[in-house]
Amino acid sequence: MRRLETLPGPTVSPVSLREHASPLRVANFRYFFVGEVVNTAGSSMSGIALAFAVLRIDDSATALGPVVAASTVPMVAFMLIGGALADRLPRALVLRGCNLGPGASSRAIVATLVLTDLAEIWHLVGLSFITGTVFAVSYPAFHGMVPILLPPEERKSGFLLIDQSDALLRIGGPVLSGIPVATVGAGWALAIDAATYVVAAAFLGLVRLPFGERPERRTSVIGDFVVGWAFARQLGWVIPASCCALVFNALISGSIYVLGPVIADDTIGSRGWGLAVSGRAVGLFVGTPVLVKITIRRPMWVIMIGFAVMSTPMLLLGTRVNTAALAVAFFIAGAAVSAPGLAWNLTVQEKVPEQMLSRIMAIDGFFSFVAMPIGQVLVGPFSAQFGIRAVELGSVALCVPVMVVALSVPAIRDLRLVGPQPGSPGQDSTDVEEPERAGDVT
Predict the structure, then answer these.
(1) What is the pLDDT of residue 192?
(2) Phi, psi (deg, nearest 5) at residue 10
(3) Residue 304: which of 233, 392, 409 has the closest Cα?
(4) Residue 341 in contact with residue 3, Cβ under 8 Å?
């Protein structure tokens, strides 16, 4: 779930840079983090490389669309089962298997086919489907790792460290990928991506934690999923919050990232749009250090208000488009973007038992990922019927009642965090020992 932060009455405690970096003092987390950085770096490069590989075969959007969709469909279709699988098996083993098996092999095959000029569109569609399936399994496993790698007082800094590095790589990766694509070709860029899967698996192989027993697991993965879904309903806040995230994500993905470039093309141009959107990255890196110092006690307020603030660019796109003003709006949205995810992660790690972590994260991931194609598909017909600017303003107007309705639900409105967070009085991160808890990582 990608959400934001704004807390009524946050309590602020001083947090030093040393404390912020302290999660990396835990060896298991350090290996996990480096593996994630390497993996994300490769994935952030592969999108452009794959697109150019497709266009080299068939220079048309008709050819590119099925390749992109082929990875999206299994992400949604298999996410919930992936969560049950990640809770059933050692999560680090699941991640290593995804990297070394279908992850590395599918990318290596794509690279080989492209380099030898044997690639056809149906090859890339099939291999993209494999990549999407790998993501559906690895996503919930990944999001169940931090709570078993770090002690409670270090988890907030750990989540933020991952978010910030991920954002930096997602911004810089496409830029860096242009170098090998332009010089040695898309095939070699895809080969680099395949190599990152292997390197990431090697670092994950260094993670050592005891395997948590699963005496409650059912005889099948489907049975485990059913138990996880029942537990999510029992909690009372997981499914309603995820449904709200679906609406917010659908509105944002359609109104900003589909209609935004269309509006910009008629007003500030592609250069102005690029400058404005870059404000989001600046806001992200300014906002993340602030989050380290804020103790979140009412996470659902952070999530819902945060999502509403993230709609700020839609307000500008629906009224008077100006590069400077739009950049400020994206800056505000960027400063907010880490808070919903952080609030959600902190809530799940405190309120959900370790053996259910991946299933709960998979439910959230399912609603979040299914929202994006919904918003992207529906925004076109709506804009044709009512006008682009009206859809932008209508999307902003919808964000407010969704937030109000969500916060009227007692299970969401009254949810509070009580556990330690970075910056808590008395926290001492000078000497961080390896956590000895019954995790499920081998």
Answers:
(1) 85
(2) -70, 150
(3) 409
(4) yes
pLDDT digits (tens, 9 = 90+) for 54-95: 878 876 656 666 777 788 888 888 999 999 988 888 888 888
CA angle 38, 39, 42 (to 5 degrees): 90
**Orientation angle between helical segments 238-255 and 388-408, nearest 10 degrees:** 170
Residue numbers in the chain where pLDDT is lower than 50: 2-20, 423-442
End-to-end CA distance of the chain: 27
Q: Which amino acid is at 244?
A: C
pTM: 0.78
Amino acid 385 reads Q
Instruction: In whole angstroms, give the CA distance from residue 439 to residue 442.
Output: 9
For residue 375, give both structure tokens: 């918003």
Q: Which H/E stretch holds residue 73?
A: helix 61-88
Give the count of beta carbons closer than 10 Å to the beta carbon of residue 232: 20
Number of H helices, E strands in the chain: 19, 2
Q: For tokens 């709506």, what's the residue?
A: 382
Task: Give CA–CA dist 441/212, Å, rounded.
Answer: 8
Q: Is residue 1 part of a domain?
A: no
- Distance, in Å, from the CA atom of 286 to the CA atom of 334, rounded to the nearest integer, reads 9
In the chain, the largest separation of any two C-alpha atoms, in whole Å, equals: 62
Question: What single string gives the DSSP state of each residue in 167-196?
Answer: HHHHHHHHHHHHHHHHHT-HHHHHHHHHHH
Per the structure, the count of domains in the chain is 1
pLDDT at 422: 52
Residues contacting 393, CB < 8 A, separation 6+: 314, 315, 318, 319
State both tokens at 346.
Answer: 């902190």
430 within a domain of the structure (yes/no):
no
> Residue 262: which CATH number?
1.20.1250.20
Domain that residue 235 falls in: 11-212+220-413
pLDDT of residue 165: 83
